[in-house]
Amino acid sequence: MSGLEGISVKVESSGCSETESWGNAVPILHEIRHALARLLEQGEATIIDLRSIPMGPGDERRLFDALGEGELRAELDALGRSTIRESRYPAVWIVEHFNGNDEVVGRFVEITWIPSILQAQAEDVRAGLDSLAESLAADAGK
Amino acid sequence: MAASKTVGDVLRARGVSRRGFMKFCAATASLMALPPGMVNAVAAALEKARRPSVLWLPFQECTGCTESLTRSHSPTVEGLIFDAISLDYHHTLQAAAGHQAEAALHAAMEENYGNYLLLVDGSIPSKDKAFYSCTAGVSHYDMLVEAAKGAAALVAIGTCAAYGGLPRANPNPTGAVGVQDIIKDKPIINVSGCPPIPVVITGVLAHYLTFGTIPELDKYGRPMAFFGQNIHDRCYRRPFYDRGEFAETFDDEGAKKGYCLYKLGCKGPTTYNACATAKWNSGVSFPVQSGHGCIGCSEPDFWDKGSFYRPLSAGYWGDAKTVGIAGAAGAAIGLAAAAAARSRQKKAQKEEQA
Fold first, then answer.
1. Which of 88-107 (B) contact A at CB < 8 A?
2. How far apart are the C-alpha atoms of B144 and B185, rounded to whole Å?
3. Whole-model pTM?
């Protein structure tokens, strides 16, 4: 159809210039800064739920670009995939939970020594111990 | 019996590890708009929570609310919540049909009398027009009244069930009303929206599942966690509104730059919902972000509140310019009418004298 080329189209997902920032990434970075100070001085951890914060298009990506990648990256396989990675700032962890269809069900920034989900859980350890004892007993019986 | 297992039991039976359970709780707490620090409290509560029996009765509806809810596939948090509850009846989704299905409904109601959660979507034609909407030969009005007797609480899902919705729009030929207009003696949670955002539906169910109580409600009976703020206050385009930068048409420079859509009829300032934060399609976007103003679909009678494309400030009388012109025209007409009346008077006097 003629004339369609005359309609200018702005693609939002292409690299936006800084002047178009909706401005929600910087306040969250400040919150992280305060949380890091609290962690060092009082040992108190902080969790920020990114789902509850109004993000304009590109805000979340700007936040993650600012946080960058650190040394540690872990992948959890329980009820779908989850990724736990340390940002370029130690003790600032980005925890993303996905369901079986790789849709986001939770996105958190945790400012803590180690996110609790990375630790082994007591109930699982107990179940594992029982299972190991059982399989050793079964082998011994052969 | 399915209803007596705890949620913890259900998840363990599905082979979910404690870590998986903690992930489930974190996502559920997020779903319920609880602060992340409450995850442990959620975990403790879910561990012990009994599976409530849930009955879903669809009435005069378009099935959009059921569609909204089922747009997530298992295994997901939403899917698990529905496994964790015991969805004993949903005549659109269930495979059973006919007499067996109706028998199953009555059996579930009897077994769990006083304890089941009743979910409703779709409006209900009022008593004298009840014949407009029936299932299995029973009017929806009667079905609702009967099912509500044994319910612990009701959840009206969607604007139709909450306030009457589209069927209730002028002239309301079926006499459609919302659940709260018929049931007066049971707690009702209104989860309005056309349709409601899926996470809002499951968040409300998750709250009931976890704590066994009704969440805090606003004056329209909607949970404050999701309907406590209006779209305008959480909208990422708010800085444009504050600076007075508006799109005037859908294709002008302002629209392309993502300016505020107030002048194009956005009802954000008077609409309370979670669209600006939770967004749609698992957080992809919402109407304003896609360039269309909010239509106010979670508010009562939103279909009858004037055009979706007239700004709020114009009210029901047209845009501001028209109001000005109408006022001036009215004044002019008044003057003209007075002048005409006077001239008729004079003519009549002349005729009398003649």
1. none
2. 13
3. 0.73
